[in-house]
Amino acid sequence: MRNGKDSCLFGEELVSYIYDELPVAERRWFEGHLLNCSSCTAEFADLSMSRLGVYEWHRDEFVPLETPRFAVPYASPEPSGPWLAAIRGFVFTPVRLSFAGGALALLVVALSALYLADFSPSGVAGIQVQEPILENVGPARAPDIAKVKDEVIADKDLTEKILDKPRVTVEATIERKPLIVRAKSIRKPTDRQLTARGNPSVKAPRLGTFEEVEDTSLRLADLVADIDSHRK
Amino acid sequence: MFTDLTDEKLVELAVNSEPEAFGEIVKRWERKIFALCFGMLGREDDARDAAQEAFVAAYRNIGSFRGDAKVSSWLHRIAVNQCLTIKRRARTRAEEFMDDDRHEGEPIFVAAPSHSPSNQTEQAERNVLVRQAVGSLPIDLRQVVVMKEFEDMTFQEISDTLEIPLSTVKSRLYTALKQLRSKLERVPMEIG
Predict the structure, then answer these.
(1) Residue B123: phi, psi to the nearest 5?
(2) Any chain A CB within 8 A of the CB of B150?
């Protein structure tokens, strides 16, 4: 028995003994144990039979075989290793790796900015479009038709001369300024309006539906005049 | 020319300036790698193919060899991978190999010795059954058995090559022999 256990746990020693790799002192001790332990002796016999079978197979089928000649293509060697290993060796140094990481981050930021610029509502592909400002918008004066007619007749000869000459194209530059749109201020509804909304019986006034109603409310001026007349 | 150099030095030479230095490595390891492949696959032609492909693969990837590992470990790993590839390829083609159509762990039954015509035939039959039994072992157990019996390596050499503890080598071999015994339960063995 070993280590106070009930069963023999000498597997490693058995294997070492079978293959003759047990030191001399241990071998003598183990042989003494085998003489007195039937379970270890039975196990030794089992393992020896297995070993014998493999040994015979090797002896009968492999030992007679000649070693073949193995041809290695030295003409196309890859002494520096496969291309993947070479790239790995080149790139995966700490400095180059950090540089590559930084470059990748910059590339991602640039691509993101380009993407956002493409789809932003204020412009297409980063080009800002200025919208014209509307100033002094008012009714245009109607031209005096009689006066214009006289001018046209007077300039008839001149017009014919101009038409005979080659046309001159004049390019006009229109300055466009951004359109300013002011939001209409939202006023709070008055108490009267709120009452009218809440009460369906109260009709909201409409344009074109005015009614002539006599104003019978007491006026302050009338009241003061009335008091003065009484004092007098 | 290269006989006095270590395996590691030969690899270094082959990587840098002299690819012929790899030829010395092949010469040193061809028998053991061939034996490993034979033990793993059980057939001479497949073993030859696997060993050939293993050496070619080793030469092509010689630049990726880590200096901290042993050349023997590196070669063994490549050879075992080649064996697994060949076996997988053969299974895809539905060829019959070592384990044939039997399921793993199923005991092998043979006729009694008296029914066999001669001792040589009996031995040949036994060898076939042992080959099938070894072929049905899990890969880590089979590798240890083959390295011990076919390559005649010590426990310490197996431990260094596979980069596993010495006790693990012994326990794997113990388990492998126990499993073989249960697989070859009915196979008569002659001692002497």
Answers:
(1) -65, -40
(2) yes
